[in-house]
Design brief:
This protein is α/β, with parallel strands linked by helices. It contains 9 helices and 11 strands. A 7-stranded mixed sheet has the order 4-5-6-7-9-8-11. Strands 3-2-1-10 form a 4-stranded mixed sheet. A hairpin with a 2-residue loop joins strand 8 and strand 9.
């Protein structure tokens, strides 16, 4: 672990700075590590790492070191992969302990996390608060006729069993549902306090906040590991101008109630191979969050914008 590094500032310093995001780097893959090594310098800008950097601390260390060497501000929220306790790791480092280990490493690089104060962004698209959150999921993204008790069997009927069921432990909570419930309670208090300050929020979470944004046609029943219905209206409740997520490996932009929703995944090498074959690299895959695109004219809600890159 790196030591002696300064904690990240909680106010952006450059009026002309921009904020970018990318999720699901999955640095266990050599191709993705090679892609990360080509990241261009953005000395006045910010970068959100939207979860699923990788399964091991060495993946996180590489991501934080690379990002901090190129960007003034770096933000990170955990995905499910960072929370895995791999067979080669200390079996006692599970659940909240694994999460805290990730937080400690991020802070050693000056990377902001959900456990830090929300940064006030004064760059382009601001002022606003960058609200980093961690919610997990509670299996509620399922059809109404499927109960919580039945949902794992329902997914397994189509051959879908998430690795989370083996490697993502909820300790000290009895279930992932219970951990999610505690996280929701904690996060709502923090978002309420931020809302009271009067600035709009950019909410950043690994998991989608809304079930209607979960579109994974190859494995539709994977939806039960994709979020919680308790966050459905958070974009309205907490005055969000943008919501930034990953997890689905389906890059898209949606406008709902005047709020922009961005799915920012890079994904596994095969999932962005067409972009690479078109001469693109990781710099093209970064998504500009702030200032970002203008709202749709006249309040007209456009169809989902599916993005191969950018």
């Amino acid at each position: 672990m790196q030591v002696g590094r300064k904690r990240a500032n909680t106010t952006s310093q450059y009026r002309n700075s921009r904020l970018f995001a990318i999720g699901d780097l999955h640095l266990s893959y050599k191709q993705n590590r090679e892609a990360l090594s080509k990241l261009n310098p953005h000395p006045e800008d910010g970068l959100i790492l939207c979860g699923d950097v990788g399964e091991k601390m060495e993946h996180m260390r590489l991501a934080f070191e690379s990002a901090k060497s190129c960007f003034e501000h770096v933000f990170w929220v955990p995905g499910n992969h960072e929370l895995y306790t791999m067979p080669s790791e200390d079996p006692k480092c599970k659940g909240e302990k694994k999460y805290q280990q990730c937080i400690d490493l991020a802070r050693s690089f000056g990377v902001l996390t959900p456990e830090d104060e929300f940064m006030t962004w004064e760059g382009e698209g601001g002022p606003c608060k960058i609200a980093l959150i961690f919610t997990l999921y509670d299996y509620s993204f399922r059809p109404p006729h499927i109960s919580r008790e039945e949902c794992l069997k329902w997914a397994e009927e189509k051959g879908i069993v998430a690795t989370d069921e083996t490697l993502l432990h909820p300790d000290p909570y009895p279930t992932r549902d219970a951990w999610c419930e505690k996280l929701i309670e904690k996060t709502e208090k923090k978002l309420e306090a931020a809302k009271a300050e009067g600035l709009p929020l950019v909410i950043v979470n690994h998991w989608p906040l809304r079930e209607d944004l979960v579109f994974i046609p190859a494995v539709p029943r994977f939806s039960i590991w994709c979020g919680t219905k308790k966050t459905t209206n958070w974009h309205k409740k907490y005055n969000a101008k943008a919501v930034v997520t990953g997890h689905l490996h389906m890059r898209r932009t949606d406008w709902i109630d005047g709020c922009r929703f961005e799915e920012t995944s890079l994904g596994y090498p095969r999932q962005w191979a067409d972009a690479k074959e078109s001469g693109k690299d990781i710099n093209t895959m970064l998504r500009e969050i702030l200032p970002g695109p203008d709202p749709p004219p006249g309040g007209v809600i456009p169809a989902t914008q599916w993005r191969r890159w950018g």
